[in-house]
Structures are given as C-alpha cells and as structure tokens.
Design brief:
The protein is α/β, with parallel strands linked by helices and 190 residues long. The protein is built from ten helices and seven strands. It has helices at residues 25-29, 32-39, 45-56, 61-69, 76-86, 101-108, 120-123, 130-140, 154-162, 173-182; strands spanning 4-7, 14-15, 73-74, 90-95, 116-119, 147-151, 166-169. The radius of gyration is 17 Å and the shape is globular.
Length: 190
C-alpha cells in the first residue's frame, strides 16, 4: 500500500499550451547546462531568464518577456486526481523547479493542494538523480517503497524506480488514476 503520492509539476499538474508560440526559447532555456543551474539553485529564476535573453539576443526580448510572464495553466483533470488521492494519503510535489516555484503555485492557486512541496532548486539536486528521490523520502520519513511518484519524463520515472520508489509515466489523468488504484488507493472522489 502506498502512503504518499508525489506528483511532478510540469507536464503533469501544470501545462504550458502557449509554448509553441516561442519556438526559439526551449532549445536555449532547457539546454542541459543552463537548466541544471536553475533547477539546482545555483542561479535564480531571474538569472536564468536573463541568460536565456542574453543567448537569444535583444531581438527576442518580446518572446522572452511573454514566456517569462506565463506560469502556465493547471491540468484540471490531474488536479481532480490529486484531490482524490489526498483524501486517502499524503500528496506532494517533487519538481525540478526554480526559485520562482512558490510564486507560480500561488498564481495558479494550487499551493494549498499539496501536503509537501519538494523543489529541486531548494534541495540542490534534481531529477533524475536518485539522490533527490531518496532525499524526499528521508524528509517524509518514509521508505521509498511506500512512495508513489508520477512524472511525464521516462528518465525521471527511471530515477525514482532506481531509488526504490513505485513510479509511473504520466500519459493522462485516467491512466494515472488507474495506476493509483492498482497500488491500492481508493479514489472514490473521481
């Protein structure tokens, strides 16, 4: 039986439908070296976005400003699963976030939906490093085998499994609910 469910934020609970409007940003913003610095807290979110603008050049200032202004939107179907799971067990976020995470959660109105929030920028280690999952379990005072983790990245799911957690790859809210039920959670509120 699962005692805690940890959800990834981006691509699971939150989505960014407008990203296609800024095709030049993802290759720069999500480049491994730069992104790693932002999500492990070596640089702030503001420094990360300033570096993206510097790399793209001043002609991309409007696109970077529009990207920076968006905090995405809540996947309401997944939020219903979060709430149903929370009626049975403790739920939390485990996300490769930046120093802006708390602000985004407040703006999205979902900060209070989770019992615990693990932000890689505060932990100093990011997914898929097994250390981040073990650190979260340690802070929960929970054995990894009692924690279920869901993420939209296969590598992050593999990292959680390597750490001993139960884990599934997010496809959609229906399959997520089915995976949680298969682990013994009664999701009656769905």
């Amino acid at each position: 039986m699962v005692d805690v469910v940890l959800f990834d934020l981006d691509g699971v609970v939150r989505r960014f439908p407008g990203m296609a409007a800024w095709p030049e940003i993802p290759p720069v913003a999500f480049a491994p070296g730069l992104l790693d610095e932002a999500v492990t807290g070596k640089i702030t979110d503001e420094q990360w976005r300033a570096e993206v603008l510097r790399r793209l050049g001043p002609e991309s200032a409007d696109a970077v400003a529009a990207w920076s202004a968006s905090c995405g939107e809540v996947n309401e179907a997944v939020l219903r699963v979060v709430r149903a799971a929370r009626s049975a067990v403790q739920v939390g976020l485990l996300t490769n976030g930046t120093s802006r995470l708390a602000t985004d959660l407040a703006e999205l109105g979902i900060g209070g939906e989770f019992d615990v929030i693990f932000n890689s920028a505060e932990l100093g280690v990011a997914k898929p490093d097994p250390e981040v999952y073990l650190l979260a379990c340690s802070r929960l005072e929970m054995e990894p085998r009692k924690v279920f983790f869901v993420d939209d990245s296969p590598g992050h799911v593999d990292g959680a499994r390597e750490a001993g957690m139960l884990s599934c790859l997010f496809v959609d809210a229906v399959l997520l609910a089915d995976s949680l039920r298969a682990e013994g959670l009664a999701l009656t509120d769905l």
